[in-house]
Amino acid sequence: MRTLTHASRRERLISMSDRGILTCVVLFASLSACERKAPAKPSDSVAQQPSPVPATPNTRPAVAPSTWDTSAGPVMFVRGNSPSEAYVVFPAITDSTPSDAVHFDSALARNATIELFQRAAAATSARVGAMAGGEWDADQCIEWPAAKLQGTPSGDETTGWTVAFLKGRAKALALDTVESMAHADSARLAADITRLVSTVPNDTARTFRGIPFSVRTAYRFTPVAGVETVVADVVRTLNQEANPLEEHTLIVGERVAGSNAPYRLAYREVTAGSDETLESSDVLAAVSIGTPPHIDLVLAREGYESNAYALLERHADGSWRLRWTSAHTGC
Question: Which one of 31, 161, 218, 322 is at 20 to 30 Å from 249 when CA atoms are compared?
Answer without folding.
Answer: 161
